[in-house]
């Protein structure tokens, strides 16, 4: 509770007022990867707010969940000397672009809105480069969630949501026996890596997750615990349908909505999809943390690239101010499935899944079981993440043994670190 209370005390009335008082008259071209139903609805809220301030919004969506295609497009734009004004970026990626001198800071906006007082300190750190804010966070997503269709579970005789991976496997076996796809999944590297990291948290716990997926400790990477994690991933492979390869994540969510599949393991942007389709939490769908104790953190943020022209620089400032306004953080996150990055936005109008996410986040901070997502670019540099994704996907799509997987993984990570 402590963080929340301390932050509540610091509600920045001045920040809220300045957000609505400023006129934009600026222009932003915004590069993002929010193209699914729920995502588009959420980013539409930002566009609406920006235009309401008199600004011009040029939308540059790059389809592809998880943002890998967007990051490729971004590099091409920067190399061509024509970066977008604002870019959805996160984690170490923010630091990498800042180190290259590609980003403008928005420290004056952060001072005015007192961002330090309203953001969890760990998140604020990620947004800063050399002590100055170069990014503005929109949300806190949780990666270790599973989504379920209650009707499908009932048909299969699954009475309770699983709290261990063994229970998950038992529930999945029942679904399979009932002719229902146990696990809706899209075979794309970032989705495979999402399953993998949730399994690592559940099998090994938060300390192990940190050692292996954040600190890249060779012993942890080659440990029995890692072998066990791959064994569970192999089990999950047996629970997906034959057409999983290349499927977009939101189409996997739709399988759960239709009752074709029992579960999906995916971050809470999946909730945005259910909501955009008019589904009601705890009625049409269930949310439940994946087996394991902790919270896998993913936070989206926008950065501001070095661009020419008063109009565009003004646009960056207005966008930064809007992103951090309590009003925006509320409407955006109600649509996105996440919870606000600001700690002082009341959650009264949020659903039970969001409230659980918030409570579990506070508990994870308290118990030191909060871990940053490897799959969603919060933990390690892109080059290292790339090695994880390649190996996990190769494992998922072959009959590689778990023992071989850990050996190859440790070797690949070592190579990436040496480069
Ligand atoms: C994540 C991102 C989320 C969500 C998801 C699927 O990396 O943080 O906001 O959109 O990708 O595209």
TrEMBL record:
<protein>
    <recommendedName>
        <fullName>Probable sugar-binding periplasmic protein</fullName>
    </recommendedName>
</protein>
<feature type="signal peptide">
    <location>
        <begin position="1"/>
        <end position="24"/>
    </location>
</feature>
<dbReference type="InterPro" id="IPR006059">
    <property type="entry name" value="SBP"/>
</dbReference>
<keyword id="KW-0732">Signal</keyword>
<comment type="function">
    <text>Part of a binding-protein-dependent transport system for a sugar.</text>
</comment>
<dbReference type="Pfam" id="PF01547">
    <property type="entry name" value="SBP_bac_1"/>
</dbReference>
<comment type="similarity">
    <text>Belongs to the bacterial solute-binding protein 1 family.</text>
</comment>
<dbReference type="InterPro" id="IPR050490">
    <property type="entry name" value="Bact_solute-bd_prot1"/>
</dbReference>
<keyword id="KW-0813">Transport</keyword>
